[in-house]
Amino acid sequence: MDSSRDSNGINVPELPCAPDAPGEEESEMQSTTIAVDLAKSVFEVAVSEHPGRVAKRYRFSRGQFSRFLAERTPATIVMEACGTAHFWGREAQARGHRVVLLPPHAVRPYVLRNKTDGADAKGLLEAMRNDELRPVPVKSIDQHVLASLHRMRSAWMATRTARLNILRGLLRELGVTIRVGAQQVVPQVWALVSDAGLRIPDALRPVLAETAREIGELEARIREVERSLESMARVSEVVVRLRTIPGVGLLTATALMAFVGDVRRFPSGRHLASYLGLTPRESSSGLRRRLGAISKRGDPYVRMLLIHGARSVLLHAKKKAYGEQDRLRAWALDRERTRGHNKAAVALANKMTRIVWAVWRREHVFSTRSLKGAA
Fold it and tell me: Which has the closest alpha carbon to 88: 72, 60, 69?
């Protein structure tokens, strides 16, 4: 095959034209697997027509890879679920290809000896042959928007927490202690800066004021993101139904929509809980079965939201009399008495995840009976 040079000086082979024979596209999609090692500007491509063997190798720039997807006969495209994978997955699907995204940590054991772009592409082909690996679904544009809003809000929350801790630490060294609570910091800092009678160094007052102003700007950005999430949640029937579950609010419901996608790919609620890392890690041998702590696999952000939601349900249940409890909260309080608060919160998060699967899959709102009604 002839080759040419692109604008980056990379040798790029001429792309083959798609065959016109009837029925050839369907057969090639079933037999041809194309592994792509993604990067910012250089894409390593390995084409396999027989399992375990690489027939052709290409090294494309971004533009040439886009051309390759457009002109290539539809086939199975395998990529790691890393940066830009969902974008290229949507691009490949729009051109008739079948896209399979594999978790990067599951592909790494298939890369033998030294790590190179070619070895990574070959490792993808080998990992594709393992039926035990669960592919990552390609995110839609709407899912990507929701995920981006959550990521930005999480980043701004982390920055806000860091600024609050800086203010507390600096003022503590000057003998000023701020009361507990994030909402107490900024008002007290402004009071300290404006009070000339306090022994706060003049050189430090502008810095404290600027940090307090930055915290206010971060809080305004966070509120704006939450308003955007709220407006998107109103038009989603799935989010409206999920918010009827105790402990599942705006953030948890929209995060599940963004990071889980189609719940029908999970055959049961336990599979969804396992996907989010809320099931025990098992280490069994022979006749001895040993279950440990939760596996913590899956997305840590969604798992954190579910556990925080479970904690809020537990705290709310403690404020009610026993006769006013529903069956879910009574079960959670019973677990707390026998296993402790933290284990009860995780167990409740697991149960909430199973309820999420049922509400989402069966398309009905959550309802429970009170203990009086059950009696």
Answer: 69
pLDDT for 270 equals: 95
DSSP codes joined into one string, 35-74: EEE--SSEEEEEEESBTTB--EEEEEEHHHHHHHHHHSPP
Selection from 72, 60, 70, 56 nearest residue 5 by Cα: 60
Share of the chain above pLDDT 90, in %: 70
CB-based burial label for 90 (10 Å; 0-12, 13-18, 19+): middle
Whole-number Å distance between alpha carbons of 41 and 38 = 9
Handedness of CA 193, 196, 201, 206 (dihedral sign): positive
* Closest to 1 (Cα-Cα) out of 68, 83, 66: 68
What CA–CA distance (Å, rounded) separates 129 from 106? 12
CB within 8 Å of 346: residues ≥ 6 apart: 278, 294, 307, 310
The larger pLDDT score, comparing residue 304 to residue 200, is at 304
Ramachandran area for residue 296 (φ above 0: left; ψ -120 to 50: alpha; else beta) = left
Instruction: State the Cα–Cα distance between residues 47 and 233, nearest whole angstrom.
Output: 42
14 residue type, one letter: E
The two structure tokens encoding residue 332: 């959670």
- DSSP of 101-124: EE-HHHHGGG--SS--HHHHHHHH
- 363 within 8 A of 241, measured Cβ to Cβ: yes
Query: pLDDT of 283-338, one tens digit each?
Result: 888 888 898 899 998 899 999 999 999 999 999 998 876 667 788 999 999 999 99
Rounded CA-CA distance 350/354 in Å is: 7
Q: How far apart are CA 124 and CA 121, in angstroms?
A: 5
Please, are residues 344 and 336 in contact by the beta-carbon 8 Å criterion? yes
Question: 3-state SS of 187-201?
Answer: HHHHHHHHCCCCCCC
Phi and psi at residue 108, in whole multiples of 5°? -55, -40
Contact 228, 338 (CB under 8 A): no
Convert the pLDDT of each residue in 86-128 to its tens digit: 999 999 999 999 999 999 999 999 998 888 999 999 999 999 9
Amino acid present at 158 = A
Gap between the Cα atoms of 248 and 256, Å rounded = 10
115 exposure class (CB count in 10 Å sphere: 0-12, 13-18, 19+): exposed
